[in-house]
Amino acid sequence: MTQFTRRGALAAGALAGFAPLARPALGQARYPARPVQVIVPWGAGGGTDATARIVATLLEKEMGQPFNVVNRTGGSGVVGHSAIAQGAPDGYTIGMITVEICMMHWQGLTELKRTSYTPLALLNEDPPGVQVNASSPYQDVKALADAIKASRPGQFKASGTGQGGIWHLALAGWLGAMGLRADHVRWVPSNGAAPAMQDLAAGGVDLVTCSVPEARAIIEAGRARSLAVMAPQRNPQFPNVPTLNEALGINYSVGAWRGMAAPLNTPPAIAQALTAALQKVWNSDEFKTFMNARGFGMTWGDAAGFAAHMERTDANLGAAMRAAGLARG
Amino acid sequence: MNAVLEAFQMVATTEVAIAILASAVYGMVIGALPGLTATMATALLVPVTFYLSPIAAIATIITSSAMAIFSGDIPGALMRIPGTPASAAYTDEAYAMTRKGQAEVALGAALWFSAIGGIVGTVALMIMAPALAEVALSFSTYEYFWLSFLGLMCATLVARSSPIKAIAAALLGLLVTCIGIENPGGVPRFTFGMTDLLGGIEPLPALVGVFAVSEIMRAMTSAPPPPIPHRPLGSILAGQWALTRRYNKQMWRGNIVGVLIGALPGAGADMAAWIAYANSKRFSKEPEKFGTGHPEGLVESGAANNSALAGGWVPATLFGIPGDTITAIAIGVLYMKGLNPGPTLFTEKASSMYALYIVFIIANILMIPLGIVMIRLSRHVLRAPRAAAMPLILLLCAVGAFAIGNNPFAVVLVAVFGVIGYVMERNGYPVAALVLGIVMGTMVEQTFVTSLIKSDGALLPFFERPVSAGLAALTIAALAWPVLVWMLRRLRRAEPAR
Amino acid sequence: MHLSDRVTGLFLVVLGALAFWGGSLLPAVPGQDVGPAAFPMVIGGGLVLCGALIALGIGRSFEAPEAADDAPPPGLAARIGGWAAFLPPALLIFYVLVSERLGFLPTAALMLLATARALGASWRLAAGVALLAPLAVHLAFAKLLRVPLPDGVLPAPW
Predict the structure, then answer these.
(1) DSSP output for B227-285
(2) What is the tally of structural domains in chain A?
(3) How far is C110 from chain B (nearest CA, A)?
(4) Whether residues A115 and A71 fall in one domain
(5) How many CA atoms lie within 13 A of A145 on its CB side?
(6) First CA to last CA across chain C, in angstroms?
(7) What's the pLDDT score for residue B495?
């Protein structure tokens, strides 16, 4: 991996240093020579869209060419993800891919998977939390876990995303780690985290396993409490919320992440130039301010780190989906 | 009082003034282009807000979205291309007025009552936000089920046709919402293996198809209508004053319905506009004029539409729950600027909150002069000969649908729904009912299924919770009412024969 | 495309039956009593019922009679009759199929020319619309709003 990175740095240096000299010989301009298209598989206005737009704005400053965000929606994310994979591998089509790329192929929705891309960089990951209503009798996650274990199957109701969505799998994985069946707690599908949190506050469900930033406003309004995060470390913005490992000795973590990727077979020199620029963007004050303000988790992974991260997620989510009976084929 | 003064100081800076003016013009223009929605106008602003002060940033979002929502009515009234599912409720009425040569009255009403609705909604936000938020938070899926069912029942009211055909059209709309994977079970339904159908049919391309393309199709086989009588323009506002006095009650009813439904996240402006239009017709003294270019419904649903937008800020600012896609973006900007949604925003950051109200009011007042300019400009579209205007509208349908998600499949949808809308209208099936089914369908199913999951299959909770019981009674009454009226009419008609 | 109520009613019956049948094939979802099959089946049933009522002519009395068109139709409709109505959706499909390869400007120009002529425009008017409108639309959508309209064989001059 060290070697890979070093070689990458050399190549990026070579590209930056020699490309202008080589231009007359090769007839090729320095990358990027024209505007770059950044495909977002989700609609305008969501968290992924906002992140992509900030990244694009900062990349534009970094690389001196416009980075145009294009929302390619449809097919529950499949359309946009395949548009990134099928783009011309010349560095002028890149995109933001999300955790769904490690889920959809297990459900048999698409052939696309993590290996259909040239990973550039992992930018963000949000681990799920365990939220309950403020008037709930369970003061800590241990009390809740004991009550769940003692309950009859289906008695507890949980929500956070649609059926088979990332937070559903987080719950299924957590239950599995406690030695329970994936459907021991009944999943109430919702249209995203915000309606689920609202239903939690309205007393409609017992717990919501969405990420802590998504639950933040309702928690701060005193209508809900976060009992734990399913992550290796505590969230610096919510230092009072323990991890599952601390509270229960369960080492289970799966999160929703976002990263940049290019079509497969993008020239390594271009990919490395982009990764280097993304690293500068990730380290910039503007990006940090934005992510902290939104409460989005800052997780960095370079090309190799992102690839390894996706491989891990893919295996974890595959296991959770099989356990929950959601995987097909 | 100090907070209010401070708020005025925060707003009265050059930066905020420029931000408001620039985003107002920007929102007006984007909204008037078919296919480019208020949501898109707002999303494109997010990177810009990054470099602005908090109040200026929020001001751009508020101003541009308010302007874009109004100017989205312009292609609706002039070309029958609705800008949003919310304006679809009165697109037909406004278009009928345009064909009667009253385009200015229709657009003027949309403008005037939008501005009033926006201001009333803001005042409601100012004085009743905590109370409204309590109502919103008490809504669980049971209550939403009844509400969406009530909305769906408007289908028989919004149409001028046989009730059976209206119900059939609404069912067809519901069937359309079955397509895709976005159902509670997460199972792909009726996708026929097509990736593009996985995400379901988006309402906007379907709306553009059934309204605009079917209109172009009709033009192909009919003679050009006689040229619209050229009337001296007169003052757009003077006419509106008369309408305000005449339909005062309707306006207030629309505003109240808008604020209440707008404060419910997920229900929002779409449902408010449809329910207000149906209400207006049900309680009207001249319901037979609806659909023929009668401003009454336009007044009520236009007011409801915009007061719902302001109402949507209640759950957004108090709990960070977005009422619609625009407030979802706004919440992101609020966080970015350290104005975290929550009750503390109203106490610790009270001056910022007051500043926000002031911006709301300024935006809604500024909407009137800018809107008048826009109406005068867009009137030229009507002077173009039909053989030149219709082809351009067709092209705009294609480009506008493509621009929604940059997906060519949306253009295919526009074509398919154009054919569906054309065949339906020629055979007396109301397309408004189809649209209502498409707008409400997902919510009806989602809330029904999740409610049953939560109640372990029991139906009792649908009637047990207090608000739920009230809505259920309202629904049943609304169901029984037309049957009762019909039977009474039958009896009365039978009497003279005796 | 005016069809009798019997035809449209029967069509709805068939569509409803297909929806019912298609819905009944959907798998159950673990943990949900009312699965994804229920909603399409209820709608299908409703459509069958409504379709049957319409085919039998019930509720006909509520309908407003359609305004009769006596004036002679323009351009294309004068030659091929009611089928002319299907030109616009056909052109939209044409746009989807060829715009990627041919480019936005030529495709749009062809679309506009065909529609304008079919509506009875003179060659001069049709050509004017076909030449100017695509440029204006491209300027607004692609240049100012960065909507990625395809270049094809004829990229825009800006």
Answers:
(1) PPPP-----HHHHHHHHHHHTHHHHHHHHHHHHHHHTSTTTHHHHHHHHHHHHHHHT-S
(2) 2
(3) 10
(4) yes
(5) 20
(6) 43
(7) 59
Tell me whether strands A36-40 and A67-71 are parallel, antiparallel or unpaired: parallel
Same domain? A73 vs A135: no
| Domain interval for residue A118 | 35-125+256-323
Examine the pLDDT at A14 and tell me if it is beyond 90.
no
Lowest mean pLDDT among A266-270, A280-284, B444-448: B444-448
Tell whether A57 and A158 lie within a shared domain.
no
Q: Verify that A52 and A116 share a domain, yes or no.
A: yes
CB A242 within 8 A of CB A141: yes
Residue A4 included in any domain: no
- From the list C31, C32, C148, the residue facing A70 with the nearest CB is C148
Dihedral Cα B477, B481, B483, B484, nearest 10 deg: 110
For residues B449-478, average pLDDT: 87
Is A22 a domain residue? no
Q: Residue B234: its pLDDT value, please? A: 60
State the nearest Cα–Cα gap between C155 and chain B, in angstroms: 16
Give the residue ranges of DSSP H helices in B263-385. Answer: 268-282, 295-311, 313-319, 325-336, 343-347, 350-378, 380-383
| CATH number reported for the structural domain that contains residue A203 in this entry | 3.40.190.10
Statement: residue A38 has pLDDT above 70? yes
Residue ranges of B 310-339 with Cβ closer than 8 A to chain A: 315, 318-322, 325-326, 328-329, 331-332, 335-338
| Separation between Cα atoms, residue A33 and residue A26, nearest integer Å | 14
Q: Is residue A226 within a helix (H) or strand (E), and if so which, with residue range?
A: strand A224-229
Same domain as A229, residue A182: yes
Pick the last residue of a domain from A203, A223, A248.
Answer: A248
**CA nearest to A153 within chain C:** C31
Q: Do A186 and C31 touch (CB under 8 A)?
A: yes
Give yes or no: residues A113 and A169 share one domain. no
CATH of the domain at A108: 3.40.190.150
- Which residues are paired to C37 by β-bridges? none
Which are the contacts of A2, defined by CB distance < 8 A and separation ≥ 6? none
Sheet with A36-40: list strands edge to edge.
A67-71, A36-40, A93-98, A256-263, A117-126, A298-301
ipTM higher than the 0.90 cut: yes
pTM: 0.85
Last residue of a domain, one of A227, A248, A269: A248
Residues A263 and A118 in one domain: yes
pLDDT tens figures, B163-213:
889 899 999 999 999 998 888 888 889 988 888 888 888 888 898 899 889
Under a CB-based contact definition with an 8 Å cutoff, are residues C51 and C5 in contact? no
Please check the confidence at residue A17 and state whether its pLDDT lies above 60: no
Cβ neighbours of C96 in A, within 8 Å = none
B82: Cβ contacts below 8 Å, ≥ 6 apart = B72, B75, B76, B88, B91, B207, B208, B211
Q: Between the CA of residue A16 and those of A89, A265, A303, B256, C144, what are the distances in Å? A: 19, 20, 19, 62, 31
Q: What is the mean pLDDT of residues A120-128?
A: 94
Give pLDDT tens digits for C65-107. Answer: 555 555 667 778 878 888 889 999 999 999 999 998 999 999 9
Residue A136 and residue A238 in one domain: yes
- Contact list in B for residue C147 (CB cut-off 8 A) is 399, 402-403, 406
User: B139: distance to nearest CA of chain A, Å?
Assistant: 6
Q: Tell me if chain A has a CB within 8 Å of the CB of C30.
A: yes
The Cα-based distances of C98 to B286, B424, C102 in angstroms read: 50, 29, 6
Cβ-based interface (< 8 Å): residues of A facing C: 37, 68, 70, 154, 163, 183, 186-187, 324-325
pLDDT more than 90, % of chain A: 49
DSSP run (H or E) holding B496: helix B466-497
* B306 burial via Cβ count (<10 Å: 0-12, 13-18, 19+): buried
